[in-house]
Write a structure and sequence with these properties.
Number of helices: 9
Strand order of the largest sheet: 6-7-5-4-3-2-1-11-12-13
Strand content: 15-25%
Order of helices and strands: EHEHEHEHEHEEEEEEEEHHEHH
Largest sheet: 10 strands, mixed
Structural class: alpha/beta
Length: 327
């Protein structure tokens, strides 16, 4: 297991249309309180990550991690471990938090979700982008080892085109380089700007799932019996009963996630805990990763089978399908 996603908060200061945080007030999401992970729980999470041999952690599933009142304190905690942090942020607080990030040797990569700026008032968006680019310039000098990704995960979204053009102009003016990502494709998404600073393009994806939460004790999976026939346990994926959906995922192979309340989920996109394996406040991460549900999911992925309803409804895992990997 390479990485553990630790959702130190599910709170965010933006309301992006493509993110569940942005639709928290919509029908079906009305009762989603936003909270911050307490220090004691965070310490259990980083201890668990080390316990399973992970090398990297992330500070999000949902939420903007830099909003956590203890963000700088958690960076210091991380410095006391061999773990390295990949920080994904919307960049709106970088003027305030940038120094903490640059001064923390545990931070190995920062991903800025600059596509979020496309939905902000233009003056506000331009100010945030300038702060992000200022951080990049300083990082290039002070932390040449730090990887920085400026994400534009909105390829194909016509409404984002004016913002994307503006951003590319700002990159050219700031770094004196022409970045022309016109040859974007599934195998060519990153474009070097300077040193370890990159523009990273991708298409938008839909977050999987509804708000119906299942757990290790209540979930039903669709599997094959010893003769290879499907054993339908019922699902809400829309697929015909008795028909297994082919596909695979890196969940429980390269990563696992811990939500802000300690629930351990199989997938870094499972923000509502639909595949809850256990709770790190009650059991160790090692123990949780051995529960029957985790074993069933891993077995399914290895056999190119999406056995859980959330996985069967997920479009993101299609990026890792064997068919796509051969393309």
């Amino acid at each position: 297991m390479e990485s553990v996603y630790i959702e130190i908060t599910d709170s965010c200061n933006l309301h992006c249309s493509f993110c569940p945080c942005g639709t928290a007030g919509d029908a079906g999401n009305a009762a989603m309180p936003r909270t911050f992970m307490p220090t004691e729980l965070f310490e259990k999470c980083i201890a668990g990550a080390q316990e399973i041999g992970a090398k990297n952690v992330f500070f999000h599933v949902l939420g903007e991690p830099t909003l956590h009142p203890g963000f700088a304190h958690y960076l210091k905690k991380l410095e006391q471990t061999p773990l390295r942090l990949t920080l994904t942020t919307n960049g709106t607080t970088i003027e305030r938090t940038g120094r903490h990030i640059l001064d923390c040797p545990a931070v190995r990569q920062v991903n800025f979700s600059t596509h979020a700026f496309a939905e902000l008032p233009r003056e506000t968006a331009e100010r945030h982008l300038q702060n992000v680019l200022d951080f990049c310039r300083i990082a290039a000098v002070e932390r040449p080892d730090l990887y920085v990704n400026l994400r534009l995960w909105n390829v194909g979204a016509a409404e984002a085109t004016p913002w994307n053009r503006y951003m590319l102009d700002c990159i050219r003016e700031t770094f004196g380089v022409e970045v022309t990502p016109g040859h974007f494709c599934s195998r060519h998404k990153s474009f070097n700007i300077s040193g370890r600073i990159y523009l990273h393009e991708d298409t938008r994806f839909e977050w999987p799932g509804s708000n119906k939460v299942t757990s290790a004790s209540s979930v039903t999976l669709e599997t094959r019996d010893e003769n290879g026939a499907t054993d339908s346990a019922g699902s809400s994926t829309g697929a015909p009963t008795g028909t297994l959906v082919q596909g695979t995922c890196r969940a429980l192979d390269t990563h696992v996630a811990i939500l802000h309340d300690g629930r351990v989920v199989a997938c870094c996109l499972d923000y509502s805990g639909q595949i809850t394996l256990g709770n790190i406040q009650e059991n160790s991460l090692t123990e949780i990763l051995k529960v029957p549900l985790a074993r069933e999911l891993r077995e399914g992925f290895a056999q190119n089978e999406l056995r859980h309803p959330l996985c069967r409804a997920c479009s993101y895992c299609k990026r890792f399908s064997r068919k796509n990997n051969k393309a």
